[in-house]
Amino acid sequence: MSDTTVDLCILGAGAAGLVAAGTAAAAGVDTLVLEKGRQTGIKILIAGGGHCNLTHECSVNRMLEGYGAARPWLTPSMKRFSPKAVRRHFDRIGVPTYVGEWEKVWPVSRSAKDVRNALERDAIAAGAAIRTDAPARGVERTRRGFAITTPDGEVHCSRLLIATGGRSYPKTGTTGDGYGFARELGHSIVEPVPALVPLVVDAPWVRELSGVSLAAVRTRLVNTDDTVCVESHGPLLLTHKGLSGPAALDLGGAAARLAKRWVDIDWLPEVPLEAVRARLRDAHALGRTRIARVVAEWLPERLVIALLRDVGVPEERRAAELPVAERDALVRAIKATRLRVDGTLGFAKAEVTAGGVPLAEVDQDTMASSLVPGLWIAGEVLDYDGRLGGYNLQAAFCTGRAAARAIASA
Ligand SMILES: Cc1cc2nc3c(=O)[nH]c(=O)nc-3n(C[C@H](O)[C@H](O)[C@H](O)COP(=O)(O)OP(=O)(O)OC[C@H]3O[C@@H](n4cnc5c(N)ncnc54)[C@H](O)[C@@H]3O)c2cc1C
Description:
alpha+beta, FAD/NAD(P)-binding domain, Helicase, Ruva Protein, domain 3, 2 domains, seven-stranded mixed sheet, six-stranded antiparallel barrel, 15 helices, 18 strands, elongated
């Protein structure tokens, strides 16, 4: 056991911590990163199913729309380290990227390990020291800065960056330690809830269709006053518990905060409601063709049968015999099926955490704590969460970078 003294100590070698370490060390700051896990960047390694969707291909302004209420706060750091700049950065550190479906940006190698390795290599090459298997157990303020307790002794530093992530996927080791550290130092915490998380719905017919997937639906989470809280557009997967896939995950954070909520699904967003109605009306000319077959030109047959049953249209109903009331019910089912959301699958299955250190307590340009001199906070431990598609790594990268730049010039 021996004590260490450094200028900057970063807690957490994840996306934010590694970018911050590379940036601060390159600017000449004596930097030590403490990582609780046996290796760095565990969440980077599992991101995007092991392929790592590291940002999104769009303008900064459009990207910012993906963070809800945190949008204004994230604007300065994201303008300075934009999705395009992130791609250039990865190109420079040996990870060329490409744009895939839904504007998601991936490493050309399709390897999350390449992303993690490049960030780690860059930080070490710049002069940062990284200790793995080195959990911070406690943080205290001292006369000259901070003392961090680790199993191998104390680390003393004049500047501290908390980049310990959220508490989703706790089996990876991210169990929300940063909230405790921030609290000990005087910050408040907005209650963390799981986000980008599958939804549990009460409709048995959805669970019976487990495994059915749709390439693109539109979803809306609505509350008791019918207010749309959040919406999404993308692939959807029906599961034995409810709904998964991007169009469901995007609603998870808002769903976790509401006591009563419903999801409205437009199964056919690319066909306007009037066109659906007209098609079903004109199907009259198809005579004895089953109406289920007509709708199955658009949607998977199993789903069509379930929708017909749900709205009380007999499965064998012929196109020429569809009463107006049944046609209207079917149009409504196709364009706006409403399902009650009973909950989410929780932190164990959540990709990110909503909640954390309130943004009002952290400077949006520098990530400096407005309560504690010498303290900076970056990444998912902060109270923002982005939608699916590279938004969360992008936010971790740009807040980590902003913190390091400010630390280097402090
Ligand atoms: C399954 C899954 C898939 C995902 N896929 C994507 C994706 O494709 N694209 C995307 O943009 N986002 C994705 N995300 C989200 C993204 O990984 C996170 O938002 C991002 O990694 C957050 O970065 P961070 O640096 O703030 O935290 P993290 O990357 O979680 O890093 C925090 C680090 O701090 C360490 N730590 C925690 N406590 C301590 C302590 N006491 N002492 C020392 N170290 C500590 C942790 O071990 C961890 O390494 C995914 C998440 C999951 C779970």
